[in-house]
Amino acid sequence: MKKVVRVAAGQGFWGDDLDAPRRQVEGGPIDYLMLDYLAEVTMSILQKQKERDPAMGYARDFVGAMESVLPAVTTRGVKVIANAGGVNPPACAAAVKAVAEKSGAAGKLIIGVVTGDDLLGRLDDLIAAGHPLSNMDTGEPLSTVRDRVLSANAYIGSVPIVEALAKGANVVITGRSTDTALTMAPLRHEFGWGASSWDQLAAGIVAGHIIECGAQCSGGNCLYDWRSIPDLANVGYPLVEAKADGSFVVTKHPHTGGRVSVPTVTEQLVYEMGDPHAYITPDVIADFTSIRLAQDGENRVLVSGIKGKPPTDKLKVSIAYRSGFKAVGTLVYAWPDALEKAELADRVLRERLDRLGLRFDHILTEYVGANATHGRLAGDQRDAPEVQLRFGVRGSDKAAVERFTREIAPLVLNGPPSVTGFAGGRPKVEEIVAYWPALIDKSVVQTRVELVQ
Amino acid sequence: MKVRLVDIAHARSGDKGDTANVGVIAYKPEWYEVLRDALTKQRVADHFRGMIAGAVERFELPNLNALNFLLHGALDGGGTLSLKTDAQGKVYSTALLRMVIDVPDTEAKRLQLPAAP
């Protein structure tokens, strides 16, 4: 057994720095590269792509990332774990295989493909069998939006990834794995942690939570002493050096920018946190109030003491459904009385929409520069040098939203004065794909692992 | 003595659906008790009154010198439904740090808290 296993994060979301995976395998020794591509609504975007082309439906960035790290995988034994498979892990594996063959690395990749999380084709059967898939926030049964559902995926844990690694995979591609399982699974595999090694499994989850957002734990988006954080242009993405007992060090490669310190790691620990006593995952419930942090040299934070307990018998399901249309238009008003002018424009616009007979489920006006982010807490901004009127509408009637987008530009000539900033043109109408979180019995979700050589 | 939260704590926030979370972290371990005592659920709910539609939940993390708040109904529906600039609640963190708290003079002196300007 290795004494220390290094897992590096190379991607915090789909759209993250394209060069980070390569920098992670070239910047220093690592055993695993972990790439997280999936946010709450990503699956629905991928599902739409798959509907247009059955060979799509995965995070295409991953194919480029694999190309850039292939030498490290084939010659140095670095293994890659990614939830890039989206709603089509087999197609993702085929694309990676094609790239490997083109690069002369054919036969050197063993790709483990994890499926079974996709419940879209089973929804009617599941509902009929007594699984209401009720919305965790509102309690409504899924049947109320069933005909508008675009994608439905269970969040799956570490077990199938561990299985793929045990079968010899050096690249593991999953669909809707939890972000944290991508980090915990290789540690569980290497250290042989059992299904009830609660504290170790929880430690792996905490390690995953710390690095799953990429550089957000190593100096990115860090408020603490932000001016002094060095060389963000060359920010080092994080990695963990883990031991069998579950303790680990968060660090980054030498000669990179950013910072790994107790404050940078603490900020990431509280990010998107719910009840800290119960961070629920398919494998284990981690207790964030048990985490101990200590600076362990420059850009090194030791994490230890983590406690875990058995998980529930449910899996969370991420469901996406069509939920109407929206558009947001903006105009900029300049001093003097910038805010007052923007407020008048808002009233004029609302009256015009009303006269046109346009009805929306929701209209939201914000004054960027005055109250958009901090509301009334920002205080009096009557003397602001400029204010952006940001006017958004949402509704089920696409034509009404479309019509609204034509009402912004006229305000430049027929509304309040000192207005500019319409160079971007008419606002775009977007279809809203909303998120429906639900729970389902673990027993109905069976994952499968296939190897592609 | 009046103390600005922004002078004694840092924070990060994120989202889960229509709920924003704000984790607020004391700059010094000995200042955690100041946060713990001043930032009651009620105080935070009052701070955000009119800005959030739902209730506030509060959790203590003494191990991290931090508190975590869940602000329900803070994101205009959240995710893709939201029309807000801050649809993902990324800057509720600094909105919380605008709070000014009252600390007894002796306590403020003992803990060497910076006074609000």
Radius of gyration of chain A: 24 Å
Characterize the main sheet of chain A: 10 strands, mixed
Question: How many DSSP-defined strands of chain B?
Answer: 6
Specify the number of helices of chain B.
Answer: 5
Helicity of chain B, as a percent range: 10-25%
Structural class of chain B: alpha+beta
Shape of chain B: elongated
What is the gyration radius of chain B calculated from CA atoms?
Answer: 14 Å
For the secondary structure, the number of strands of chain A is 19
Query: Which percent bin holds the helix content of chain A?
Result: 25-40%
Biggest interface and residues each: A-B, 49 and 43 residues
Strand-residue proportion of chain B: 25-35%
Number of structurally distinct domains of chain A: 2
Alpha plus pi helix count of chain A: 12
Question: Which residues of chain B form runs of ≥5 with pLDDT under 50?
Answer: none
Shape call of chain A: globular
Estimate the strand proportion of chain A: 15-25%
Task: Trace the largest sheet of chain B across and list its strands.
Answer: 2-3-5-4
